[in-house]
Specification:
Length: 385
């Protein structure tokens, strides 16, 4: 069918450029999401309660990131017989942690440039750059240790705590997914997600956790690890997924696309969620289901695939991590210099322009060299003859 990609193009060995681009589009929605937090209530109301919600799907993007990480990190293990834990961890540190340190340094430098820390009427703004920079807080951000305010330097840093924690054990998760029958990883993912909330209650009084909020922030690692598992399962069964999609009629494929957007954008926003006494994070699962469908569509649907592989979208995808790391710092710098002094529309234009420019600089100076370092350090040295 014309809207499907030939299965001959598919394969575990190829680079999934469309998924890089999907990550870039998702990172851009995080950029818009955080700007929406300072918009007038009338604008926010319109964005949240209409399909425009997809433009500011920030938390949904993080769920998609975790699924994509599980997917792409599992692919190499489908061809390996050994764990190679050391090289994996070293490459992961260079890929995720070193650029993160660069972003932390940039955020601290900008934070120190605004020493007044004056309170704002907008409560969300006061989560970031509202306290003095201390050596303890800096050290906690560097080491990911203790019960500390993850949003104090940059509101987007919270997800990287989970990303690095889960990366420490991911090779073992991936091998388990590849060796066990389908049922067991699915049950494990469900168990990890369901266990996070009761474990937080159980451990709320442990000495290094100062209360329930700290406990839930810690045990949510299990909840988010479940999405890495689901992404890993997708990688394992990729060929079967592709074959299943190839049998869909155009109407079924279109229905799948609409359903994926509805679940992804609104899966955690229904009135049922608002009234439910269940932990709100459990409603990440409808979002995850929508994100799974989007990944399937990105790989298999010709129109979506061609959109994602255009030069401009792929450019954004290559720099998606840098964009995610620095956009919050740019936003708060503008908040402290221009908010209330220029129209919101002009502030948005400046925000996007400066963010994209600094993203390019950060990518070239920090992220790309860090990736190259990881490859160089983990590439076997060939003995010369």
């Amino acid at each position: 069918m014309q809207d499907k990609i030939s299965l001959r193009q598919q394969g575990d060995s190829r680079r999934f450029y469309e998924l890089d681009s999907l990550r870039g589009v998702a990172a851009l929605t995080v950029v818009f999401h955080h700007f929406s937090r300072i918009c007038p209530d009338s604008v926010t109301h319109l964005l949240i309660r209409t399909p425009l919600r997809l433009l500011i799907a920030g938390h949904q993007a993080v769920i998609l990131f975790f699924l994509l990480s599980g997917f792409v990190l599992t692919l190499p293990y489908k061809k390996k017989t050994r764990l190679n834990y050391g090289p994996f961890l070293l490459k992961r540190v260079c890929r995720i942690y070193l650029p993160y340190l660069g972003a932390v340094a940039l955020a601290i430098l900008c934070d120190l440039s605004f020493p007044g820390h004056r309170p704002y009427a907008n409560y969300w703004i006061n989560y970031t750059w509202s306290e003095p920079v201390t050596a303890q807080l800096v050290l906690q951000h560097i080491l990911f240790l203790g019960n500390y305010d993850w949003s104090q330097f940059n509101t987007a840093f919270w997800s990287l705590v989970y990303e690095m924690r889960i990366s420490l054990v991911f090779p073992f998760l991936a091998l388990a997914v590849l060796r066990l029958s389908l049922l067991w990883p699915v049950l494990c993912a469900a168990a990890l997600s369901l266990a996070s909330f009761p474990l937080a209650i159980l451990f709320a009084n442990v000495w290094h956790l100062s209360g329930f909020t700290a406990a839930i922030n810690t045990t949510l690692t299990l909840h988010y690890a479940a999405f890495f598992l689901i992404g890993s399962l997708m990688a394992r069964h990729l060929n079967a997924i592709n074959r299943w999609y190839s049998r869909l009629t155009p109407l079924q494929a279109a229905t799948l696309a609409l359903l994926s957007l509805a679940l992804y954008g609104f899966g955690d926003a229904s009135s049922l969620v608002q009234r439910s006494s269940a932990p709100s994070n459990l409603f990440d699962w409808p979002v995850a289901l929508g994100a799974v469908m989007l990944i399937i569509l990105a790989i298999n649907n010709r129109f979506f695939h061609e959109f994602l592989t255009t030069r401009s979208i792929h450019y954004l995808g290559e720099r998606s991590y840098s964009l995610y790391l620095i956009h919050g710092t740019i936003l708060f710098s503008l908040i402290h210099t221009l908010m209330g002094r220029v129209p919101t529309t002009l502030l948005l234009i400046l925000y996007l322009s400066i963010t994209l420019a600094v993203t390019e600089i950060f990518y070239r100076l920090i992220e790309k060299p860090s990736m190259l370092l990881g490859r160089r350090l983990t590439t076997p040295v060939t003995a010369s003859t």
